[in-house]
Amino acid sequence: ATVSTSTTPLEIRGADASLSFGDKYFSDLTTSGKPQDIKVVLNFTNVSEFNAIAQVQITSTANINITSDKEGLILLKTGDDASGSITYTLSPISNDQGEYESFSASELTLNINLLKANYQETSFRTDVTVKQFTQEEKASIKQGLGDAACCYDIPYGEQYKNYAERFTYVEMGTEVATGAKLRWLVVGVDNNGAVAALTLDDKMALSNGFMLNKDYYLLSEKVLYSENATNYGIAFQNEYSNTEPFLNTEYGVSANDYATSNVRKYLNGTSVKRDYEYDQTNNVYKSSGTQVGFASTYTFTTEETNKIKARSITQMYETDTARVTYDEDDNIIYSTAQTGQTFPTTQTGKATIDSTAQDKFWLLSETELWTVFAEDTLICDSDSWKVFMSARTMVQGTTSGAASWWLRSPSASFANSARCLSVGGCSYGDYVENAYAGVRAAFKI
Q1: Cβ(200)–Cβ(207) under 8 Å?
Q2: CA 192, 193, 196: angle at the middle one, nearest 5?
């Protein structure tokens, strides 16, 4: 396999190789400005030993940022004519004084490793078209979300990633008001009804526009507004008693129960009220505000609808095993050692819940949040909240400003609090009647 850069070609023998840049190195650093990035193009030809999909892993001993147009994933066609191309960008990193470090050519050596996957082209699905965000879209999305501080001044800085850099997407559904197609990120793969993380093989296929012969889980690229692009929030539950144990008025179960929630009704096509009002005389919360409906805001063709596989509501409870504890240093610990959530039982004389129901659209649980965004997380030192860097998102129809969104998991301590993801990317509990958080719908395809 021949790998060439803008300077000298390199012959790869076997799976490993290294690449030096000759005189292509960062100049001595001053405070006058950032040195120019280095572009490296790897062109692969005649890679017959990697006859289906291959990954390129590339690292450097120098303290630099390395990014690529394909995240190091490349599809090599079957046969002796296997070929492909990846462009890498090497960017210097500044210190606190805005100074950039200089490197010699040897220090900028890149280590290249080719990995073979286990799937052939016959393993690809033909019913779904997978797309990648362009470099221009990635830059625009990153600019829109901003490099804002999160969770008590923990900065993203140059380490910040957004969802456009982490995921591919599928276009399905149409926004009624504008006619725009909706984008859905491919975030997970099915594992006996549970949401599992994408494997290396999945990522390699997806990065080249293919799905393997599996069921995948998709998540809306942005928060789907309930009324308009400036009013995206919707109450998780807006009808319940404000007296402990905070029971849902209609069903007599906890106000933070997902099966009986306002947001589930919304996703299932029922027209609901997005906000609440407080009845002080009876000490209860009642639904109020604008009448909204997912089905009237977003439509899907018959062909698109037939691709969506419904998910059992009881299974959603069984797979929600997230628990959050802390170690002796107050660092957050994620554990799935516990059993799943218990499906609710309604009180006598109250409305019943259909435990056999199958939902086409639903919310991620906290377990699933930790699963699909685990690669891009960090700890906020001040309070040990987890930061999901790629989970920050904007509102559908806007180009700036992060937005918070509901999870389907209940808070452990309060029956009137459900889990959310904040605008900064931290998971937290919020009162269920608040219409501050929006909906990021998920489904299986």
Answers
A1: no
A2: 80
